[in-house]
Each structure stands twice: as structure tokens, then as C-alpha cells.
Amino acid sequence: MMPSTDFFEYQSRSRVFYDRILVGYHDEALRLVERLLNDAETDANGCIVADTIHPKKVRFMGYQDRAYRFVFYVRNRRSPPAGEVVRHRCNNRRCINPDHLVAGTQLENIEDDRDFRANGVDFALLLRG
User: Fold this and answer.
1) What integer pLDDT is reported at residue 125 of this predicted model?
2) Range of the domain at 36
3) Crossing angle, helix 67-75 and helix 13-20, to 10 degrees?
């Protein structure tokens, strides 16, 4: 008997959730993203933040995620691959401004925090599109 070449690919609950949005609920999710962005305030640095102490959470289709992740993945029409995190170029975890969000690795996120502690925010980065 030949060994099977089939393999199991683990998909996180988050990946399954965003895949499901992209297939059948993207327009509805985009409306929620626009509502989140419109309901939040823009600060002097261009960060769009909700009136919360911690990163805002959003619930959609029975799943809860941080608003910045929801905004990033819905606006970019993608699902999170394993090991990917959403980084804040502004170093403000409450920010949901799509222009301040970028995909990266956990290591890059840690390096961002280290650089911020050493140098502060490089506001020139926020002007890039």
C-alpha cells in the first residue's frame, strides 16, 4: 500500500471566518467597516480611533475580532495566512485607519515596538500610501 500524499492543512478559526466573508458577505462587511471608520474620531496624527481605552472589537457573523484586523482584511480582500499579524505603522493599537495598517510577522511587530520605544513614531511613514 502506497502512503497517502494527502495532507491536512490547519486553518485557524480566523482564516475560516475571513474566507467566509470574502465568499459571501464582503459587501456587508465593507458596510460595517465604513460605519466603523465614520463613527470614530481622527486625531492630530491621522489615527482613526474609537472612544475606547483598548483596541475596539467588532462582532460580525458570530465572530469577534479586533476592529483594526477586521478593517485591514476586509478592505484588502484577504484572509490572514498563518503567522501573519496586522501591524500599526503609527504604533497606536486603537487606530483603525487603513493607511496606518500593514501586514507583517510577529518579529516585525516586536521590532516596531522596540523602534518606537527607542525613537518614537516616524510620522513620515504615515504619509506613505
Assistant:
1) 58
2) 13-127
3) 50
CA distance 99 to 93: 14
Domain membership flag for residue 2 = no
The 10s digit of each residue's pLDDT in 43-65 is: 998 999 988 999 999 999 999 99
Burial class, 20, CB count within 10 angstroms (exposed 0-12 / middle 13-18 / buried 19+): middle
Give 126's pLDDT tier (boundaries 50, 70, 90): low
Residue 4 lies in a domain: no
* Residue 26, domain member (yes or no): yes
State pTM to two decimals: 0.82
Give the count of domains, the chain: 1
Q: Are 29 and 73 in contact (CB under 8 A)?
A: no
Task: Supply the angle between the helices 26-39 and 67-75 in degrees, to the nearest 10.
Answer: 130
